[in-house]
């Protein structure tokens, strides 16, 4: 009978083991996804900043061209 008690304890610990492994794998997956999302988010913000700078430059050039053409007419 003592072996039945030991086997149930062993079964309980082995049934917790896969749950812990699954939880660890899910945590790792979530961390990986979070890191990738952060990286993509940073890239998007960097590209948006670059686009904003380029649009500002274009706007300034258009204003300068408009002032030059109205001033020379």
Automatic annotation (TrEMBL):
Coiled-coil ranges (or none): 41-68
Region (Disordered): 1-20
Family membership noted in the UniProt record: Belongs to the HSBP1 family.
InterPro entries per UniProt: HS1-bd
Superkingdom of the source species: Eukaryota
UniProt keyword annotation of Cytoplasm present: no
Keyword annotations from UniProtKB, A to Z: Coiled coil
Comp. bias (Polar residues): 1-15
GO molecular function: transcription corepressor activity
Pfam family, one: HSBP1
Name of this protein: Heat shock factor binding protein 1
């Amino acid at each position: 009978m003592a072996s039945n008690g030991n086997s149930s304890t062993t079964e309980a610990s082995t049934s917790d083991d896969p749950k812990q492994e699954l939880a660890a794998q899910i945590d790792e997956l979530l961390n990986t996804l979070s890191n990738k999302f952060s990286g993509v988010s940073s890239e998007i913000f960097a590209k948006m900043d670059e686009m904003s700078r380029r649009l500002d430059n274009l706007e300034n050039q258009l204003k300068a061209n408009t002032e030059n053409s109205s001033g020379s007419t």
